[in-house]
Design goal:
The chain is an all-alpha fold. The protein has one domain (3-421). Helix content is 84%, strand content 0%. It has helices spanning 3-6, 14-65, 70-83, 88-117, 121-131, 133-139, 144-148, 152-175, 180-204, 217-249, 251-267, 269-288, 290-317, 319-327, 337-361, 364-389, 391-417, 424-445, 450-467, 473-480. Helix 2 (14-65) packs across helix 5 (121-131). It is globular and about 65 Å long. It starts with a helix and ends with a helix.
C-alpha cells in the first residue's frame, strides 16, 4: 500500500479523526486568544474612525478575494483527491496553479475597488497593501494537500505561527503609535512568509505534481464555479453589511459593529475544525459507504449544535462585560449586537457542515441560488433598516439571512441523503443550554463578575449535557478508542 493510500480518508479511524479535530481546536483556540488580543489592541490603537476604515478594507478584500474562487477550488480539489487517490498529486497541483492565476486577477480588482472607496491617502495605501494578501492566499492553497490526507496539524501549526507573528506586529505598531499602513504592510509580509512555508512543506512531502496540470483546470473550474458563485454571494451578504454601515451610518458605527463582528468571526474556529477534518472523510464515505456518510453527518450536526449553544447563552446574559473586557468601555454601545450575532453563529455552525455536504453531493448550483436569495434579502433589509436603526439593524439582518440560507441548504442536503434527523439530542442540548443560561443569569443578577459567570457556565453546561443525555459518554469513549 502506498503512502497516499495509507494516509487517505478511506483509512481514517475515529481516533485519528478525533485527534485531528482536537489538535485543530487547541491551535485555533490559541489563535482565537491571540486574535482577541490583537483585535483589542488594533481597536485601541486606531480609534473608532480609523478602525471603521480598517474594517471596511478587510471587508472589501474578503469579498473580492472570493472572486478568485480560492476556497471553492481548494474544497473541490480535496473532494476529488479524497475520492481518487491514484491522481491525488495531479488534482492538488492543478488546484495550486489555477489558484495562483485567479488570485492574481482578484488582487488587481481589490486594488481598484479600494482606490475608489478610500477616504484618504492612508486608507488607499493600506488598501493596496492588504489587497496583495489575496495573492499570498494563492500560494497558501497548497494546504489542500494536508487536508486531503487529514493532516490538519500542519495547517493549524502554520495558522498558529501566523497568529503569533501578527500579534508581534500589532504590538510593535501600537508601541510605535503607528496606523493603518504599518498594520497592512506587516500583515502582508506575514501572509507571504507563512504561505511560502506552507508551499515548501507541501513540496517536500511530495503532495504536488505540477506537470501537465492545465488539462485538469477545466474540470476543476466547472466543478468549482457554481460553488465559487455561492461562496462569493455568501461572503458578500456576510460582509456587505460592514460596508453599508460605514456608508449609511458613518465610520464610528462601522467601528462599533466591526468590533463585535470580530467575535463572530473568531468563534467559528470550532465548526471549522470539525468540518475541515470531515470533508475528505465525507467524500470517501459517499463513494463507498452510505451508512457511514449518514452517521458522520448526523453526529457532526449534533456536536456542532451542542458546541454553539453555550456561547449564545453567555452573551445573552453578559454582553456588556464581554465587550468591555475585549474592546474597552468606549465600545460598550456595541454590546446589544453581540448576542444577536451569536444567534447567527449557531446557524453558521450548521452552515459550514452544509457547505461541505453540498460539495460532496454536487448541489453547488442550488447553494448558489440560496446564497443569491440571501444577498438580496440582506441588502434590501440593510438599506431599509440601517438609516433609522444603525448597526443593531445590521446584526439582526445577519441573523435572519444566515438562518434562512442555512435552513434552505440543510433541507436540500437532507432530501438528497433521504435522511430524517432525530431531534432528541438537539432538544436535550437546548434544555441544557437554557438551564445554564438561567443559572448564570441568576449569578449576574447577584453581582457576580464575568470570570465567575464563565467558570459557572463551563462547569454547569457539560454536567447538564451529560445528565440530560445530550452527550453519550459511551460514544465518546468509543471515539477515543478509535471505534
Amino acid at each position: 500500500m502506498s503512502a497516499p493510500e495509507r494516509d487517505g480518508a478511506h483509512h481514517v479511524t475515529a481516533r485519528r479523526a478525533t485527534a485531528d479535530v482536537a489538535v485543530q481546536l487547541v491551535a485555533r483556540a490559541v489563535s482565537l486568544v491571540l486574535g482577541i488580543f490583537t483585535t483589542l489592541l488594533v481597536v485601541r490603537t486606531l480609534g473608532d474612525a480609523r478602525f471603521g476604515q480598517w474594517s471596511t478594507i478587510v471587508a472589501v478584500v474578503d469579498i473580492v478575494g472570493y472572486l478568485s474562487g480560492l476556497y471553492s477550488l481548494e474544497q473541490v480539489a480535496v473532494e476529488r483527491a479524497a475520492a481518487d487517490r491514484a491522481s491525488e498529486r495531479q488534482w492538488l497541483g492543478a488546484q495550486l496553479g489555477l489558484c495562483l492565476l485567479t488570485t492574481s486577477v482578484a488582487t488587481l480588482v481589490s486594488c481598484g475597488v479600494l482606490l475608489v472607496v478610500s477616504e484618504d491617502g492612508d486608507m488607499r495605501a493600506a488598501g493596496l497593501l492588504y489587497s496583495a494578501t489575496i495573492l499570498a492566499g494563492g500560494l497558501a492553497a497548497s494546504r489542500a494537500g494536508f487536508q486531503a490526507r487529514v493532516r490538519n496539524d500542519v495547517q493549524v501549526g502554520i495558522l498558529t505561527l501566523n497568529s503569533v507573528l501578527w500579534t508581534g506586529v500589532v504590538v510593535l505598531v501600537a508601541v510605535e503609535d503607528g496606523g493603518l499602513v504599518p498594520l497592512a504592510a506587516g500583515y502582508l509580509l506575514i501572509a507571504l512568509a507563512t504561505a511560502g512555508l506552507q508551499l515548501a512543506l507541501a513540496v517536500r512531502a511530495g503532495m504536488l505534481d505540477l506537470r501537465r496540470i492545465r488539462g485538469l483546470w477545466p474540470v476543476l473550474a466547472r466543478a468549482a464555479l457554481p460553488l465559487a458563485g455561492a461562496a462569493l454571494l455568501t461572503i458578500a451578504y456576510t460582509r456587505v453589511d460592514q460596508v453599508l454601515v460605514y456608508e449609511l451610518a458613518g465610520a464610528v458605527e462601522a467601528g462599533l459593529y466591526g468590533a463585535v463582528y470580530r467575535v463572530l468571526d473568531r468563534a467559528q474556529f470550532v465548526p471549522l475544525a470539525v468540518v475541515t477534518t470531515l470533508l475528505p472523510m465525507l467524500a470517501a464515505a459517499h463513494a463507498t459507504d452510505t451508512e457511514r456518510l449518514h452517521r458522520l453527518f448526523t453526529r457532526a450536526s449534533e456536536y456542532l449544535w451542542l458546541a454553539a449553544l453555550p456561547a449564545l447563552g453567555l452573551t445573552i446574559v453578559a454582553p456588556e462585560p464581554i465587550v468591555r473586557l475585549l474592546f474597552g468601555s468606549e465600545f460598550s454601545d456595541a454590546a446589544p449586537a453581540l448576542p444577536i450575532l451569536m444567534g447567527a453563529f449557531v446557524a453558521i455552525s450548521f452552515g459550514h457542515l452544509a457547505i461541505n455536504m453540498v460539495i460532496v453531493l454536487g448541489l453547488q448550483r442550488r447553494l448558489a441560488l440560496y446564497a443569491l436569495t440571501g444577498l438580496l434579502v440582506n441588502v434590501l433589509l440593510n438599506l431599509a433598516l440601517i438609516p433609522p436603526f444603525g448597526f443593531i439593524a445590521a446584526a439582526w439582518v445577519t441573523l435572519v439571512t444566515e438562518a434562512m440560507v442555512v435552513a434552505l441548504a440543510l433541507r436540500a442536503v437532507l432530501q438528497r441523503l433521504r435522511l430524517r434527523p432525530e431531534l432528541g439530542r438537539f432538544a436535550r442540548a437546548l434544555v441544557a443550554a437554557a438551564i445554564m443560561t438561567a443559572a448564570i443569569w441568576a449569578l449576574d443578577a447577584g453581582g457576580a463578575p464575568l470570570g465567575v459567570l464563565v467558570a459557572a457556565a463551563g462547569v454547569a453546561y457539560p454536567a447538564l449535557a451529560i445528565a440530560l443525555r445530550a452527550v453519550d459518554i459511551g460514544e465518546l469513549r468509543s471515539l477515543l478508542r478509535g471505534r
